[in-house]
Amino acid sequence: MKYTLFDPRPCLLGEGAFWHPERQQAFWFDILNRRMLSRRHGRELAWSFDDRVSAAGWIDHDNLLIASETALFRFDLRDGSRQHLVALEADRPDTRSNDGRADPQGGFWIGTMATDGSPGQGAIYRYYRGELRKLHSPVSIPNAICFSPDGKLGYFADTDAQMVWVQDLDGDGWPKGQPRVFLDLRGTDQFPDGAVTDAKGNFWNARWGTGKLVCHAPDGQLLQSVELPVKQTTCPAFIGERLDRILVTSAAVDLGGAQDGRSWMVLPVGVTGRPEPQVQP
Fold it and tell me: How far is CA 154 from CA 30, 49, 196, 213, in A?
């Protein structure tokens, strides 16, 4: 697979990449610098926030659901106004949101973690039609939240544990039964970060610490990988009119490389993604 630079602006902690299908526009976050980034018609765009923001889904053409360290809120791209939807561990100043993504049923999954990385302080939640429900805890660093194309499976990881799990979902997108191991990376140098599935259900996973984007089949078989010129790849998303390119964010925290923290575009061969589902708030 080939790659090219997508956006030169370095992120201290890039995360939450996604493609808005109605706007034909990519968004991603720099969590520690409290900003959301985008590009449109060749222009660099950015929005700053008072608290740390990490992930989003699209509600309609002009409104996003954004996860911050204390809440989920509706954000109007036209004027920057925001409407509080639900608190997210607002009583815990020691935690923040991390990885998140919309599911095919219109829900939004979001993980939390300790701001200092302390183990076992986070959880994974789902927000659906006004209800926020805790799904999994404890989690140290929640990541790799994504879903099978038919909405019957949900994936999530704990980066610190080097594990990825897969979870059966019911018709409304709620978990049923117990999660089972999808990838066990313990004992390797592979730490699963953000992930997305393609149109065939293959699992594309950024690997923190190795600079890789790795693709696994639905049965876990390794299919292919590409190494980017950064050490800390963080989150992929299929982008473009044909959803045939992959935006990959990265992080520059604790690093000093010229490329670290920049956002990249991978050009896979014969691979397409799926439009990000619309959130039903």
Answer: 25, 30, 11, 19
